Amino acid sequence: MSEIKLLSEDLINKIAAGEVVERPASVVKELVENSIDAGADRIVVEIEDGGKKLIRVSDNGRGMTETEIRLALERHSTSKIRSVDDLFNIRTLGFRGEALPSIASISQLKIERNQSSGLTIEAKDLFYNTPVRKKFLKSNATEIGRCGDIIAKYVLAFPGISFKFVSDSKTLLFSSGGGDLLGAVAAVYGAAIAKELLPVNKSFASGNIAGLISRPTISRVDKGYENFFVNSRYVRNFLLNRALEETYRTYIPGNRYPIAVLSVAIDPREVDVNVHPTKIEVKFMKNQEVMAAVRSAVVEGLTNISPISSGNQTSNSFALPQGEWQAPMTDVFFPEEIPPTMPERSAVAISDELPLAPLYQLKNAYIVATDGSGLSVIDQHAAHERIIYDRLTRQEEIKSVQAMLIPETVELDLSAASAIREHLGLIQEMGFEVEEFGQNSFIIRGVPAICGKTSGAELFVDLANDLRENGKSDQLAVKKENLRKSVACHSAIKAGEGMTTVEMTTLIRDLFRTENPTTCPHGRPLIFSITAAEIEKKFHR
């Protein structure tokens, strides 16, 4: 008997679903794209139980007849392409004709024609017949965040469409559809970010680039706020990201990233959208031309903005943002008492408690020190990161809170807010006095005392973005570990900040009281030494 057999239609659909439907957000993406392609200007997305129990998308688009609905449930049926040539001239978001049958194969699918116009499509009990796939879904908060992130991209890509996202009867995102990109950004990221953005508009040989970019005064710890759209399709293309980031390198620190919402309008024949099953990745026929256009657009947008300090200042003073609620720097940054003055460097005694004496701060980033024989170079940020991490790890330090005289309100995007909600209990355990305050907003009343020098709002935003990117573990111990690392990283003194001899001495002393004074919490080295013998060898002695 032949071992080669044709697969059943049901199994074929489930395999196709594996390409198209990875999680609830995948269903949201496919259904919303269909609504947009149908000309809708009002789209409502509702989910329950993180999308596992219900995903419902309603729109006021053109809709379908009963016959068309039946045809749409057949594989490879589509209204969006007619010939091979159409594949190289794509002007719609969805076109493969696999979404509805794929979704129907792993959920209870229901399609209704609305009385006025448009459709309502429901997908219930996602992965009910593929339990292994269902088992790999994350927590509700994570899945809600991913659905919200998908919808947010369409809000930014189509500011003329009104979107409403509801989770378990609670509205998490709403855009009016007024057509203003700045208004769309405010709906997604909040008004505070929207007012810090600059318009850009640049034509090039094959098309045009337009949108908004951030002033150098505002940046983020990850690339999650870099948004690129090609012919209104949200895409990932590392060359676009690189062109944007390279242009900002003299404006913001090297470990920070800009905020950008940039749309590339280009002849569809100049771009390939068929390189990925979900069409998230694209290839340009003329990469260098598009990258140059991005750089040029950003440069023009930033032309009249002065770059922030590059860290080459010669002053050795320790300048920190001070608010009324903050304790004096020496009480927070170095909580133990230190004398108001220090003896001359040559008189600083080397001891077990202070095995290195500071000599000089190099480029306001590295401490050059000596043990009386050789030399050591310490990364000040990594060293302080290790100190804070160890103190946060000790239970008694976690309960030490620096109250804020004036509470700060922070507005987050939906996915970052979902990440905070998922970890809120652990964040509060760590010493943050924070609570929800309206839709995707939080009010901060206190921070861990060890972080007192840092702006509470800035620290909280960076923490939220870290959790969105790296907070996906289901293990409690790993979640706590990631939180400590994130708080330590964003609270530590940064490269470019000057330190006095007193502060350098105290930093070294506290570093060698930690459990591991040689690496930062992420495992990177924070100190290296050159022995006297190595120095002598350099001089051929």
From TrEMBL:
MutL C-terminal dimerisation domain residues: 358-499
What range(s) does the DNA mismatch repair protein S5 domain occupy?
Answer: 185-303
Q: Name one GO molecular function term.
A: ATP binding
Q: SMART domains attached here?
A: DNA_mis_repair, MutL_C
Gene3D superfamilies reported in the protein's UniProt record: 3.30.230.10, Histidine kinase-like ATPase, C-terminal domain (3.30.565.10), MutL, C-terminal domain, dimerisation subdomain (3.30.1540.20), MutL, C-terminal domain, regulatory subdomain (3.30.1370.100)
**An annotated GO BP:** mismatch repair
Q: Which domain of life is it from?
A: Bacteria
Record keywords, A-Z:
DNA damage, DNA repair
Spell out the InterPro entries in the cross-references.
Answer: DNA_mismatch_repair_CS, DNA_mismatch_repair_MutL, DNA_mismatch_S5_2-like, HATPase_C_sf, MutL/Mlh/PMS, MutL/Mlh/Pms-like, MutL_C, MutL_C_dimsub
**Gene Ontology cellular component terms for the protein in this record:** mismatch repair complex
The cross-references to HAMAP family, in alphabetical order and at most eight, read: DNA_mis_repair
Biological role: This protein is involved in the repair of mismatches in DNA. It is required for dam-dependent methyl-directed DNA mismatch repair. May act as a 'molecular matchmaker', a protein that promotes the formation of a stable complex between two or more DNA-binding proteins in an ATP-dependent manner without itself being part of a final effector complex.
The entry assigns this protein to a family as follows: Belongs to the DNA mismatch repair MutL/HexB family.
Q: What is this protein called?
A: DNA mismatch repair protein MutL
Natural source organism = candidate division WOR-1 bacterium RIFOXYC12_FULL_54_18
What are the leading ranks of the lineage?
A: Bacteria, Bacillati, Saganbacteria
**Gene label:** mutL
